[in-house]
Amino acid sequence: SRDIRGQRPDRRGGRFFIALMLAPAFLILALFYVYPTVQNLAISLTDLSLLRLKTGGNWIGLGNYREFLGSAEFPHILFNTVIWLTALSVVLRLSIGLGMALLLDSPVLRRLRLATIAKLAILVPWATPPIVAVVVWRWMLDGQNGIVNAVLRELHIVDHPVAFFADLRTVWPSVVTIIVWNTVPLVTVSLLASLQSVPDELHEAAALDGATRWQQLRHITLPFLMPTITVLTLMSVFWTFNNFVYVWLATGAGPGTFTNVLATEIYIKAFVDFRMGYSSAVGMVMALVMAVFGIVYYRFIAPSELKDSL
Q1: What is the pLDDT of residues 150-187, one digit of tens each?
Q2: Residues 109/118, Cβ–Cβ less than 8 Å
Q3: Chain segment 227-241, per-residue pLDDT in tens
Q4: In the chain, N or C: fewer CB atoms in 10 Å?
């Protein structure tokens, strides 16, 4: 191809200009992501203590990794992180978010003129800081003065107050409830935006062909939502897997260490036991697990979901 003067464009010059413009962005990424990761990896190979930061730690190689991965607590912590904290809350978040998005997009709310009020109401949990959300829910679920226990006893569902955050049967469902309540609006708003981009002509044509509402949802709506669901699933897993605030503020990893997860384990080892090297090793294990998940998800899961949506 030639430009307006009949000369061939200088491709090498164009590539150099693009690289030059992207250089500041790559430099920022290197400073804020690559360097801390390398530094954390280096610390994880030592026995550095929080009480001996100036003197530094002694090189112990993979000792911290062998200790953590071989400990009796590791399977329990990994199960809590993967199943309770991440898998359950993400599945509930996506399922409830999809249902609420479909409800907000339904013609019933528009006929009742409640669509705007409902959309504003759904933003309240999203606008609530996680710390405030945990404090409010802890008060509501309090075993003595909580409103939830008062309602349950008034309805004769329970005879005695339930200590939601002390009972091993209810502590994880309580934590997951807080997480879902505080984070489901983002999923709802994202899916609602995708729903409103679905052409009405497709639903009208399907209805004329005799398709039921369930068939329209399955063969028209869901395929249009799959790209958004794919991205939301990946981001929700990352956000939840690495989350520290909800579990620590709600239970402090208790009762005992029953709700201990990888993020709280990092905090406990670093700022309670003062073992910075060990804590860094736990952090690197978390990063490795998420890296493997991201590769598998983008390599095998995401392409098939996007392909089915086309």
Answers
A1: 999 999 898 888 999 999 999 999 999 999 999 999 99
A2: yes
A3: 899 889 989 999 999
A4: N
